[in-house]
Design goal:
mainly alpha, globular, about 575 residues
Length: about 575
């Protein structure tokens, strides 16, 4: 028996030596890549949040041992009981994400829909918000399960030329949205200053206060989240006050939400409502914000816990912007639906129309509108800058100080915005044309955030056990196709009316061909990669495994600790983990 044991030991050493002699790339492919962060180049990669910045989230349900976790409950197939304290700890990222549903562009779409279509598009507002919630839940799922945000994963997933093209599209989307947000804030400052401060001065003020608010992150993520809570509360108070003052018909509101109605004369307003809900940079933002909580993506039970509370938090967060958008739409439906002013209302003159319609008061409705618009513009410019930092660091992996990244991101938007503000300062109609072009730019970018997101959350090689199933994939593609198709129709209608002449038509045709080709590449590449790797998995036993699955299957006593893993070679790690799982 001693001889047999010696032979077995010698064979095990030989196998270990053979495994250790493999290339690092081959050994990395045996397990989830994030397992090897201790001895890879992860320290050279820019992360959304440094470990010291992350908020510690208690996973314990035992009040006598707050440092313990509920891993044993997940091993037994039971989730720990719901905790309001845990929900409070996870609350924050969803409300920052919800700001994109309340930016000045959305408010302008709401007031125009209300003035032109009355309450008949409230059902579309509800379902558009529901579609936006589904997309944001997928973004949160991606960030929590992988420990990386969408821009980082796109950098790893796509070749260099496609990665740079996606980065360019994301930057264009962010800048076009930021211009609208900054101008919205500047209009609010002009209203509140009674016209004393022109729009370009408001642009400069907005650019500076954005840096001030972002500096609060140095004192902790919770401080920045508290600022957003105040801004959201300010918007809610302002527009709720307007709603109460104007007294819309409650019966019409309920019918508008429950009964779908759509006429040909309000198609453009309907498209505007749907197109404003899904903003590409917000998808990148939410996948990064969920990493502000200290969650180990290697541990399946922690990921499941986080997804549970983030789902609740995101749903609660989007109820607030839905109600605010509802208030704005119904207020302008009450005051201007069927009037001659309905087709001429925009952000800049909306307050004056409200003042003329509903008269003076102790606190004029014009300034209530200005306060709400300022809160919407300020909060959305901050989140836009925040998203720009994640997009830049994720796609390009630039290791820069945050204030430098913020300065670069703001420069992308502020320089053209000041130029626009000076040029369009005396022309409301020209400003409306500019907003139309900016909406077109953002509509063009929507697929370049949705397609990579759906592709990545559908791949087991990326998500492990947290990949979405076939039914969810079908539902997700169906939901994603709605804004893509709607915005495609909008683009065709817009360009057919704006583009004239043979040369401009040829240029547009070439651009459309390039655009569609890139979309098809993204779609078919994702499908091909998924099929290829799933097929390889069927006959190759050493296919990549998700660490969360290993954590569930392995005995907790035999599983090596993180300190032990960091000292082992690749071959030893694979041998020890697989030996405890077999």
């Amino acid at each position: 028996m001693a001889a047999a044991a010696d032979a077995d030991a010698a064979g095990e050493r030989a196998a270990g030596a053979g495994l250790g002699s493999r290339s690092a790339a081959e050994e990395r492919s045996l397990l989830h890549p994030s397992l090897f962060s201790a001895y890879s180049d992860e320290d050279l990669v820019e992360r959304a949040f440094e470990p010291a910045q992350k908020i510690v989230v208690s996973i314990s349900s035992d009040p006598d041992d707050p440092d313990a976790d509920d891993e044993h409950l997940y091993y037994g197939g039971h989730a720990p009981p719901f905790s309001w304290r845990k929900l409070w700890l996870f609350t924050g990222p969803g409300f920052l994400m919800s700001i994109a549903f309340l930016d000045p562009g959305n408010l302008e779409g709401d007031l125009q829909a209300g003035a032109t279509a009355g309450d008949t598009l409230l059902w579309l507002l509800f379902w558009a918000t529901a579609m936006g919630l589904l997309v944001q839940l997928l973004a949160a799922r991606l960030g929590v399960a992988t420990g990386k945000h969408l821009a980082e994963l796109c950098r790893d997933e796509y070749p260099d030329w496609a990665r740079r093209a996606l980065w360019l599209m994301a930057e264009v989307s962010m800048v076009s949205a930021d211009i609208q947000e900054v101008i919205g804030s500047a209009i609010a400052i002009k209203i509140l200053s009674n016209g004393f401060l022109p729009i370009w001065v408001g642009v400069v003020i907005t650019a500076l206060d954005c840096f001030f608010f972002l500096s609060l992150e140095n004192y902790g993520v919770r401080k920045l989240e508290a600022v957003f809570a105040v801004l959201i509360a300010t918007m809610a108070w302002s527009f709720a006050w307007m709603f109460i003052k104007t007294k819309p018909n409650g019966k019409d509101i309920i019918i508008g939400i429950l009964v779908p109605r759509l006429s040909s004369r309000v198609i453009s307003q309907a498209v505007g409502l749907v197109g404003c809900v899904i903003t590409p940079h917000n998808v990148f933002l939410h996948s990064a914000l969920v990493q502000s909580r200290k969650i180990d993506p290697h541990k399946e039970y922690q990921v499941r816990e986080a997804l549970r509370y983030y789902t609740i938090e995101s749903t609660m967060a989007l109820v607030v912007p839905f109600m605010i958008n509802l208030f704005v739409t119904t207020v302008f439906a009450k005051g201007f639906y069927g009037t001659k002013e309905a087709g001429n209302i925009g952000l800049e003159n909306a307050g004056h129309f409200l003042q003329e319609k509903f008269g003076e008061d102790f606190f004029p409705i014009l300034y209530i509108w200005g306060i709400g618009l300022l809160a919407a513009g300020t909060s959305s410019t901050i989140t836009g800058t925040y998203a720009g930092q994640f997009i830049m660091s994720g796609f390009l992996n630039w290791r820069l100080k945050k204030w430098i990244r913020a300065l670069i991101t703001r420069s992308f938007a502020i320089v053209p915005t000041i130029t626009v503000a000076v040029y369009f300062n005396t022309s409301d109609s020209a400003l409306d044309v500019l907003n139309e072009w900016l909406n077109v730019l953002q509509s063009i970018q929507i697929p370049f955030a949705l397609i990579p997101l759906i592709t990545l959350v559908s791949k087991e090689q990326v998500m492990g056990v947290f990949k979405i199933g076939p039914r969810t994939q079908i539902a997700t593609w169906a939901v994603a196709s709605v804004p893509i198709i709607i915005n495609g129709c909008l683009l065709l209608d817009f360009f057919s009316s704006e583009v004239k002449g043979l040369l401009s038509g040829l240029v547009l045709f070439a651009a459309v061909i390039a655009y569609v080709s890139f979309l098809l590449y993204l779609i078919f590449r994702g499908i091909a990669c998924t099929r290829k790797k799933n097929g390889a998995k069927a006959h190759r036993p050493s296919a990549p495994l998700h660490v969360g699955r290993l954590n569930t299957q392995c005995n907790a006593v035999n599983r090596p600790s993180e300190q032990q893993v960091s000292k082992l070679k690749y071959g030893d790690v694979y041998k020890q983990i697989t030996s405890c799982c077999i």
